[in-house]
């Protein structure tokens, strides 16, 4: 059995796609790219330069300022990237076509030539199976209800010792869903050939097991 060397994992925030992508990458010895962090880095970069993430000129300048070499060497580890300020700025810059264009070649290079001589790559995000790597042999779309995703996010924030108000988290989640699914360019949707997994009632182990089963079916 040959393992496919490219796997994409897309879906809305908080559905568990990052967890699945990391586990698949570790399991197969593949490199992992969390593409959301690229958009978050552009969002934070825009703010750091005193710009407005919704303003194309400001966001495009921040996207062009990202250094692909330093990103490939692990430059996306800044903890600030995980915060809600970065998330909200990311979903604004992500609606600007030129920003997506700048980030596209980096993502495709990573998929075609994964760093550190890895045998393959796992990309997770919103459009990795539809736009970035439409020919990927294995694609997942990981989803869950907005309420469940907000509950998980709320718990994660409280566990980290941050303050969190559930109704606010739910509203933010829904706003980001609407922005991501209704934008004109690369809207969030499942690729036609993606395996959709609804994780509302599943834990991470069950999702991982379901994903491995699908990969085995694909490669037999
Ligand atoms: O996945 P994460 O929450 O880190 O993504 C932050 C934002 O970046 C998303 O809300 C989305 O607007 C944008 N994004 C995107 N395309 C991707 C990954 C993320 O538009 N492939």
Care to describe what's here?
This protein is α/β, with parallel strands linked by helices. The protein has 2 domains: 132 residues, P-loop containing nucleotide triphosphate hydrolases (Rossmann fold, 3-Layer(aba) Sandwich); 83 residues, no CATH class. The chain has 10 helices and 5 strands; from the N terminus they run E-H-E-H-H-H-H-H-E-H-E-H-H-E-H. A 5-stranded parallel beta sheet has the order 2-3-1-4-5, with helices on both faces. Helix 1 crosses helix 10, helix 2 crosses helix 3 and helix 2 packs across helix 5. The longest helix has 17 residues. The radius of gyration is 17 Å and the shape is globular. The model has no long low-confidence stretch (mean pLDDT 92). The protein binds cytidine-5'-monophosphate.
Shape: globular
Which CATH top level class of the largest domain fits?
Answer: Alpha Beta
Q: Tell me the series of helices and strands, N- to C-terminal.
A: EHEHHHHHEHEHHEH
- Named CATH topology of the largest domain: Rossmann fold
Number of helices: 10
Q: On the 0-100 scale, what is the average pLDDT? A: 92
Helix content: 40-55%
What is the β-strand count?
A: 5
Percent range for β-strand residues: 5-15%
CATH architecture term of the largest domain: 3-Layer(aba) Sandwich
Give Rg in angstroms.
17 Å
What is the CA–CA distance across the termini? 6 Å
Bound ligand species = cytidine-5'-monophosphate
Uncertain residue segments:
none
Q: What quaternary form is this?
A: single chain
Structural class: alpha/beta
